């Protein structure tokens, strides 16, 4: 089983933040490697933002998953993992 560490969660959350951009909805995937393990996070997310006086996208207040899954593979073999969306959610929110 692949065990997610805090640094891996942080890298995954940073990639997800980049993918979210300034939108209020994300539907897609982000991928990264941790050594020889490929991690692919696939999700549809509603992004709740605070008010921004400049008219741009406000800070991320909450992220609500419609659906998500996380796959980890090593070579051609898929591995079980302990990915926890609640940990990712905390890292992508501005508060």
**What is the tally of helical segments?**
2
E-strand count: 4
Beta-strand content? 35-45%
Largest β sheet strand count, sense and barrel closure: 4 strands, antiparallel
Coarse shape = elongated
Cα separation of the termini: 31 Å
How large is the radius of gyration? Answer: 14 Å
The share of residues in helices is 10-25%
Mean pLDDT metric: 94
Side-by-side strand order of the widest sheet: 1-2-3-4
Secondary-structure element order, N to C: HEEEEH
Which segments are poorly predicted (pLDDT under 50) over 5 or more consecutive residues?
Answer: none
Computed structural class: alpha+beta
Characterization of this structure:
- The protein has helices spanning 6-20, 85-92; strands at residues 25-34, 37-49, 60-74, 77-79.
- It has 95 residues and is an alpha+beta fold.
- It has a four-stranded antiparallel beta sheet with strand order 1-2-3-4.
- A hairpin with a 2-residue loop joins strand 3 and strand 4.
- The longest helix is centred in the N-terminal third of the chain and has 15 residues, at 6-20.
Can you summarize this structure?
With 95 residues, the protein is an alpha+beta fold.
List the helices and strands and how they pair.
Blueprint: H1 6-20, E1 25-34, E2 37-49, E3 60-74, E4 77-79, H2 85-92
Helix pairs in contact: 1-2
